[in-house]
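$ ./design --mode recover --in tokens.txt
reading tokens...
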């Protein structure tokens, strides 16, 4: 028997390992002794054994279970698809509210250090704005250069030919950059 100061810890997490035979012999003997003394654990052990027996009995005739021919493809497609259509619109509001609340909590918890954190974030956003402005200026300059070249070419050849060439060139650029920038990995 146990004394009142001894605490009995029930091995709830080890019952499935015990049933599956994954434990060493010493631990199995310890659990056998515990199950003999602990009524709730022995009930839990018996209920898990009954569940496994029922599951084994129901799956004994696997030929009775008919799966569709494209079962794997359907499961993969459903697993990869988004479930955003199943969400309620109020969940987005709740998520934003929680995120803003957590951000405010972090700022208040930081106290005096919050100013340096906000300054750091402001500096990072400023650097991102400078880099994106630089690349935007490069893209703008390229398009202005192409427009000047096409304009001079159009004055030499004729307006209709230049317009068709410019349209073809811009369609080519659009297709080329969209394929490069938006290429998604294929599964």
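writing sequence...
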């Amino acid at each position: 028997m146990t004394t009142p100061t001894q605490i009995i810890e029930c091995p709830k997490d080890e019952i499935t390992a015990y049933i599956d035979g994954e434990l060493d012999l010493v631990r199995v003997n310890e659990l056998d002794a515990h199950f003999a003394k602990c009524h709730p654990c022995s009930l839990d052990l018996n209920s898990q054994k009954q569940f496994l027996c029922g599951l084994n009995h129901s799956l004994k005739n696997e030929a009775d279970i008919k799966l569709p021919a494209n079962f794997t493809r359907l499961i993969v497609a459903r697993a990869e698809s988004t479930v955003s259509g199943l969400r309620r619109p109020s969940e987005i509001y709740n998520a934003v509210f929680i995120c803003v609340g957590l951000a405010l909590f972090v700022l208040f918890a930081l106290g005096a250090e919050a100013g340096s954190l906000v300054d750091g974030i402001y500096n990072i956003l400023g650097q991102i704005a400078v880099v994106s402005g630089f690349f935007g200026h490069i893209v703008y300059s390229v398009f202005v250069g192409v427009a000047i070249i096409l304009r001079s070419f159009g004055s030499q050849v004729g307006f209709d030919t230049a317009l068709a060439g410019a349209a073809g060139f811009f369609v080519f650029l659009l297709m080329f950059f969209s394929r490069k920038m938006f290429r998604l990995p294929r599964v």
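exit 0
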